[in-house]
């Protein structure tokens, strides 16, 4: 154990001795010597920064990065789905020898700071050569790379910081005013806001950087960032509003390929109220995900808040622990009565409410005579003490039935 600690200390010192040399190649060459294996280092969008040795090794990922400097989206997706299924937003170095890498086992590691992923490394070991100290050495390498990146990288775009500030409800008025001035240089209202909640799995968080690069490359006027573990994209209105909508739907279709669904608010007419628009778009995305899971409905490439309101409101209320206290107490009693007496009062009342208390439409929907509907409604009033002619009672029942939809 003492020898291993001594060896790791030497590794740490060797990495740091190379950190001050220009570029990243000295560090990666040093890592290759320590691991006695090929090593590559990419940025957060899987574009090559450095690798050693500079020759093909017979692995698709390594050889593709050597030749083209970047990886196809399909390859990135495949590796994410294969190896980053576990919950969490970041991952420590780990060794894999099965699946896509069975012919060339390797160590994967993520280089990240407190806020974002800033790069990835891979050490192409053979299975027989793997030792536990390799993971510790990989961790030292990621720490060294993080320090070097933070020391040499440029200050991030001021527009990204401005958008972060405006999305945060706790930002001071003075800070918001400065952010609005900065964004006004690129944003002409009305704009459009896309929000894609990222599941708490490593694969989607790792892919978010690729999605940001896609937006910046294909739609230069877009402003994509990661905020609260969501991918948030502000589309500025440099062109016609219809073209802005077309751009939003193209981005949505791109994200759908990688099982990332988003919601949108259009138009965004008051940049100061961006936290409200953000919440609307996020709830719309969650509603869309529920719709996809429940009804397998992905025919519409993008859901807009104004098209599905007020459903996001009921979804928002259902996320609060105390929401059940606002459900009309008669509904649970009616359900229990139906179960014990083989009646259909709950279904009848639900249909009556969701047909906006229109008896003709309700009876047609239930495929029963209007007299039968009247009989059932009268029995509901008598048995459960409800006045179905009272506006507040009907409104309370309707809202309760909508909220129950989101109970799970």
TrEMBL record:
Domain PucR C-terminal helix-turn-helix, first and last residues per copy: 347-402
Source organism, top-level taxon: Bacteria
InterPro entries: CdaR-like_regulators, PucR_C-HTH_dom, PucR_C-HTH_sf
Protein name per Swiss-Prot or TrEMBL: PucR C-terminal helix-turn-helix domain-containing protein
């Amino acid at each position: 154990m003492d020898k291993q600690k001594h060896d790791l200390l030497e590794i740490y010192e060797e990495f740091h001795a190379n950190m001050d040399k220009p570029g990243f190649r000295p560090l990666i060459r040093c890592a290759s010597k320590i691991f006695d294996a090929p090593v590559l280092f990419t940025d957060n969008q899987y574009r090559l920064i450095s690798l050693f040795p500079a020759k093909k090794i017979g692995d698709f990922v390594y050889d593709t990065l050597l030749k083209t400097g970047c990886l196809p989206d399909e390859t990135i997706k495949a590796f994410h789905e294969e190896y980053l299924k576990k919950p969490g937003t970041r991952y420590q170095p780990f060794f894999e020898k099965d699946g896509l890498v069975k012919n060339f086992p390797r160590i994967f590691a993520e280089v990240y700071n407190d806020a974002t992923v800033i790069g990835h490394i891979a050490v192409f070991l053979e299975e027989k050569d793997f030792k536990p100290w390799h993971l510790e050495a990989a961790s030292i390498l990621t720490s060294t790379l993080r320090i070097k990146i933070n020391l040499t990288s440029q200050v991030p775009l001021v527009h990204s910081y401005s958008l972060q500030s405006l999305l945060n409800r706790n930002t001071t008025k003075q800070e918001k005013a400065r952010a609005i001035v900065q964004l006004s240089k690129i944003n002409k209202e009305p704009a459009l806001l896309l929000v894609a909640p990222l599941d708490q799995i490593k694969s989607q968080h790792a892919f978010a950087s690729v999605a940001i690069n896609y937006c910046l490359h294909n739609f230069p006027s877009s402003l994509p960032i990661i905020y609260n573990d969501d991918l948030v994209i502000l589309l500025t209105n440099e062109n016609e509003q219809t073209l802005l909508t077309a751009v939003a739907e193209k981005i949505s279709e791109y994200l759908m390929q990688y099982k990332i669904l988003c919601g949108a608010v259009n138009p965004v007419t008051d940049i100061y109220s961006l936290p409200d628009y953000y919440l609307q778009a996020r709830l719309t995305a969650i509603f869309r995900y529920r719709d996809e899971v429940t009804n397998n409905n992905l025919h519409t490439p993008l859901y807009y808040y104004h098209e599905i309101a007020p459903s996001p409101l009921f979804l928002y209320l259902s996320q609060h622990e105390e929401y059940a206290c606002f459900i009309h107490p008669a509904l649970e009693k009616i359900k229990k009565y139906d179960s014990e007496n083989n009646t259909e009062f709950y279904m009848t009342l639900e249909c009556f409410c969701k047909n906006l208390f229109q008896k003709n439409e309700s009876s047609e929907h239930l495929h029963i005579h209007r007299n039968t509907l009247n009989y059932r409604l009268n029995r509901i009033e008598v048995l459960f003490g409800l006045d179905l002619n009272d506006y507040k009672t009907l409104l309370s029942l309707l809202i309760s039935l909508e909220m129950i939809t989101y109970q799970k």
